């Protein structure tokens, strides 16, 4: 139990937090307690991100992040890893981790379409759904989810580090120019924490897609590039 002292305009409040319950009870004098839910910094950092549990599992966790938070699947990383291993080369996975081809083969078993594209930074800024990219971070190959890119920044859901922002100048040289998108029969959840809803252009594109009843290819990925696999 953690004792806290909270000062407000009405006087001094005493607060007690039960870490296991994720709530703080505030009490002023003899008044009834006021329960306020709280979240730890770790919870906020990994909000809408599947955290990788193995050194080699960033690819599986990135796929799991999209399946769980973009399409609402009730899925855990352990299941993603086990099922991806069934459609992958175990030796190659042990040496290099999962590949985008492994991702495609896996999501197809779930009824999704996996699409790989080569795009540039300009196209990345126009993406309408979150995608998976591979970054070379000081020689370490690491899969992350790009939620959006805007105003010189790239917003990332990182299975190892959680939600973070990279400047374009540091992102561009680490990125190989490929994106992997998972597409389902229904659009990405509008309330997904992975979706950007502030940019007017993306909002207009989303509204147009919903009005048509489906997401046309150019609205799924932004500017079209060739399909790699």
UniProtKB/TrEMBL annotation:
Keyword Zinc belongs to the record: no
Membrane spanning residue stretches: none
Annotated signal peptide: 1-19
Domain Peptidase C39: 52-182
Pfam families per UniProt: Peptidase_C39
Key words of the record: Signal
Domain of life according to the entry: Bacteria
Protein name (record): Peptidase C39 domain-containing protein
Organism of this sequence: Ralstonia flaminis
């Amino acid at each position: 139990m953690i004792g806290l002292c909270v000062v407000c305009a009405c006087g001094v409040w005493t607060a007690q937090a039960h870490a296991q319950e994720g709530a703080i009870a505030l009490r002023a004098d003899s008044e009834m307690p006021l329960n306020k839910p709280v979240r730890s910094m770790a919870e906020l950092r990994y909000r809408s991100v599947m955290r990788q549990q193995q050194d080699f599992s960033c690819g599986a966790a990135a796929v799991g992040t999209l399946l769980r938070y973009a399409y609402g699947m009730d899925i855990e990383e352990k299941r993603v890893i086990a099922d991806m291993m069934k459609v992958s080369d175990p030796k190659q996975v042990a040496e290099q981790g999962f590949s985008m081809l492994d991702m495609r083969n896996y999501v197809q078993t779930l009824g999704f379409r996996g699409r790989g594209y080569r795009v540039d930074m300009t196209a990345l800024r126009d993406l309408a759904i979150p995608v998976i990219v591979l970054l070379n971070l000081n020689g370490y190959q690491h899969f992350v989810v790009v939620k959006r890119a805007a105003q010189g920044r790239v917003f990332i859901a990182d299975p190892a580090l959680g939600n973070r922002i990279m400047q374009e100048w540091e992102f561009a040289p680490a990125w190989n120019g490929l994106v992997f998108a998972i597409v389902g029969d229904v659009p990405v959840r509008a309330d997904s924490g992975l979706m950007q809803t502030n940019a007017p252009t993306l909002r207009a594109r989303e509204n147009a897609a919903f009005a048509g009843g489906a997401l046309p290819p150019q609205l799924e990925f932004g500017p079209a590039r060739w399909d790699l696999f």
